[in-house]
Amino acid sequence: MITFEKARRSWTGSSDKQTSCVAPSPRAKYAAQFAPSNIRQLLPVIAAISLIVPEPGFACLWDYDTLAMERQRFPEAHELIAGHFVRHSDAYYEWRISDRTAKSVDQRTPLDFDDIAVAYDKLGQHDQAIETIRAKIARWPEERRYESEANLGTFHIHAGRFEEGLQHIDRAIELNPEAHFGREVYQKLLVEYVIESRRRDDQLPLDDEESYGGTGFTAFVLAAQEAKAEDRLAEIQAAAEGIMGMMRFGRHDSPILLEALGDLLLSDGFHEDSKMLAARAYLRASYEVDDSASSTAYRQKARRALEMQIGRKTSEIEADLKREMEQGDAFFGQIAADERAWIASGSDLDTEFADKYYEAPELKVAHPNWKPMKPGTTLTLVVLGGLAIVFVASASILAIVVRSVRRRRALSPP
Question: How many Cα atoms are found within 13 Å in the side-chain-facing hemisphere of 307?
Fold first, then answer.
């Protein structure tokens, strides 16, 4: 199986190895409520009941949601999974370092130091990024200190120094807990989740329990945040936004980030989830690992995510995803070509980029409003299902009665 060291490199681009020791996870407190093996055994019963009992707890168990509804529920998740969003190429970050360092050191502003440091980090030169921020702090100890702490935390995490990174993230949260929509809070939780998962099992996926939601990173977040039942969905939405921010400004194709997003997209498995998007996240993660066992495990997670999605097969979702990824690759290829051309012509890349790529073109989605069946067909199936259940129940009762009569006769004296 893929090791965590390889996984961390795919997440951060670094090869340093660190040992970790953290307190036991809050995950068990929450995940224990979901017994996956028991849920699987009860699926036939739940399915039967859902056909004849319009109880809210079962209303969304078998999911008829369209992809358009899922996209509305989690905006930008689809584009990030497919890689179809605005971002810079490596050529841009090389240009940025050259452009900002063309000034003498005493002429550089705090923002210049931040720009240089982030560019180094994007290029995988994490220690150089850390040195740049430390030079900034030495010159301006308090100016843009939140940005300094947040960046230092991120750079140390990218370099594999998780505990040291968490210290800086904690300081950034203390300085500005609502910055970046609270993204640092979920960055901290994700790193703690990775550390704990690595202690339990040095392989990907981080969590391969059979489940329909409410486990994995979702369970970890809900337990750590002590979310009440009425706050679950809001907390899941906030965590998803945090993970998507890390994908947008970090590595959108990281299997760790994709797995965490997939867990959150499944929500609690019973309402307000996004099964087709979650399956895409797990499938994309399966492409980004370098061994077949981990890839197979992620594909299994995708298949399980769709088990309660009416009328959509994994093969169909995967075919759509590959077409979407082709669009993402083509769009990013266009950006990279433009940035190389602007560098060659001596243009200001920041100005040119802002003028042309204010927003990404729309991702073309196949069958966004596809539904598996018409309401009339659904009603027919409900009636037939109800009749079938009555027949099965009657046959079961009759069998029990016959068995009881035979047992009594066998025990009666001649």
Answer: 18
Report CA Rg, the chain.
26
Least confident of 103-107, 188-192, 263-267, 314-318: 263-267
- Position 54 pLDDT exceeds 80: no
pLDDT value of residue 13: 37
Q: DSSP secondary-structure letter at 63? A: B
Written as six digits, the tokens of 328 are 């993402």
18 class by beta-carbon count within 10 Å (0-12 exposed, 13-18 middle, 19+ buried): middle
State pLDDT tens for residues 359-384. 778 888 876 655 554 445 545 555 66
Answer left, alpha or beta for residue 361, where phi above 0 means left and psi between -120 and 50 means alpha: beta
- 4-17+26-329 folds as 1.25.40
Distances (CA, A) of 261 to 53, 84, 209, 278, 397: 32, 16, 16, 7, 46
Rounded distance between C-alpha atoms, residue 202 and residue 259, angstroms:
16
CB atoms near residue 55 (< 10 Å): 9
CA distances to 78, 358, 371, 389 from 247, rounded to whole Å, are 12, 19, 30, 47
54: preceding bond cis by omega (within 30 degrees): no
Cα separation, 34 vs 36, in Å, equals 6
Distance from C-alpha of 395 to C-alpha of 268, rounded to nearest angstrom: 35
Q: What is the spatial distance between Cα 247 and Cα 18, in angstroms, rounded to a whole number?
A: 23
Nearest to 13 by CA among 163, 204, 198, 155: 155
Of 15, 80, 81, whose CA–CA distance to 285 is shortest? 81
Residues 6+ apart with CB under 8 A from 369: 66, 67, 68
Average pLDDT, the chain: 80
CA atoms within 13 A on the CB side of 40: 8
Helices (H), 74-182: 77-82, 90-100, 110-122, 126-139, 145-158, 162-175
